[in-house]
From TrEMBL:
<dbReference type="InterPro" id="IPR018079">
    <property type="entry name" value="Ribosomal_uS4_CS"/>
</dbReference>
<dbReference type="GO" id="GO:0019843">
    <property type="term" value="F:rRNA binding"/>
</dbReference>
<dbReference type="InterPro" id="IPR001912">
    <property type="entry name" value="Ribosomal_uS4_N"/>
</dbReference>
<feature type="domain" description="Small ribosomal subunit protein uS4 N-terminal">
    <location>
        <begin position="3"/>
        <end position="93"/>
    </location>
</feature>
<keyword id="KW-0687">Ribonucleoprotein</keyword>
<dbReference type="GO" id="GO:0042274">
    <property type="term" value="P:ribosomal small subunit biogenesis"/>
</dbReference>
<keyword id="KW-0694">RNA-binding</keyword>
<comment type="function">
    <text>With S5 and S12 plays an important role in translational accuracy.</text>
</comment>
<dbReference type="Pfam" id="PF00163">
    <property type="entry name" value="Ribosomal_S4"/>
</dbReference>
<dbReference type="GO" id="GO:0003735">
    <property type="term" value="F:structural constituent of ribosome"/>
</dbReference>
<comment type="similarity">
    <text>Belongs to the universal ribosomal protein uS4 family.</text>
</comment>
<dbReference type="InterPro" id="IPR005709">
    <property type="entry name" value="Ribosomal_uS4_bac-type"/>
</dbReference>
<keyword id="KW-0699">rRNA-binding</keyword>
<dbReference type="GO" id="GO:0015935">
    <property type="term" value="C:small ribosomal subunit"/>
</dbReference>
<dbReference type="InterPro" id="IPR036986">
    <property type="entry name" value="S4_RNA-bd_sf"/>
</dbReference>
<protein>
    <recommendedName>
        <fullName>Small ribosomal subunit protein uS4</fullName>
    </recommendedName>
</protein>
<feature type="domain" description="RNA-binding S4">
    <location>
        <begin position="94"/>
        <end position="158"/>
    </location>
</feature>
Length: 205
């Protein structure tokens, strides 16, 4: 497993957006980059930098996935039939850590990844501790019985920061959810605009 070595909120400040729509994000108070050069004026960005920013934003949103892993998702999206950018989003939303986050069993994608790594999640009744595991239609995702009363889980389930999207079904009394279908870009409740078409352009240069 690759480690995320920087603060998640530094990702927000570097990109200049509140990636996860959290009230605690420092971008809400300081919408410029971190460090002594963060407030420098920026010229018109090149096509390359616009594409790179779109890639960094999408990578960052899903817990700052490693470049190697993210490129594999792009390559798989190209192999599949249909629109590559839609396929890419579909694959990212099937990641188990993304699903656990969407079901509100964890407060952030980073917490979701840690929660899975520590063995707190069952998929169809079996323990899965791989955050990148791809969930299929009809899969039932559940918090392990011993973990259902953890404060972090209860806080996430009761949070008003976001809702469970329509392509999933959640029962927070039983801490169980079902992945109903793979979403398209317009179905995903991103707090900021994502541009997977620019990510595809970046990799297809």
């Amino acid at each position: 497993m690759s480690k995320r070595l920087e603060s998640k909120y530094k990702i927000n400040r570097r990109l200049g957006v509140n990636l996860w729509g959290r009230a605690k994000s420092p971008v809400n108070r300081r919408d410029y980059g971190p460090g002594q050069h963060g407030q420098r004026r920026k010229g018109k960005p090149s096509d390359f930098s616009v594409q790179l920013m779109a890639k960094q934003k999408l990578k960052g949103y899903y817990g700052n996935i490693s470049e190697k892993q993210f490129r594999k998702y792009y390559e798989e999206a190209v192999r599949r039939k249909g629109d590559t950018s839609e396929n890419l989003i579909n694959l990212l939303e099937r990641r188990l850590d993304a699903v656990v986050y969407r079901l509100k069993f964890a407060i952030t994608p980073f917490a979701s990844r840690q929660f899975i790594n520590h063995g707190h999640i069952l998929v169809n009744g079996k323990k899965v501790n791989i955050p990148s595991y791809l969930v299929r239609e009809g899969d039932v995702i559940e918090v392990r019985e011993k973990s259902k009363q953890l404060a972090a889980v209860l806080d996430a389930a009761q949070s008003n920061e976001r809702d469970v999207p329509e392509y999933m079904e959640a029962d927070h009394r039983q801490m169980k959810g079902t992945f109903l279908r793979g979403p398209g870009l317009s179905d995903v409740p991103y707090p900021v605009q994502m541009e997977p078409n620019l990510v595809v352009e970046f990799y297809s240069r």
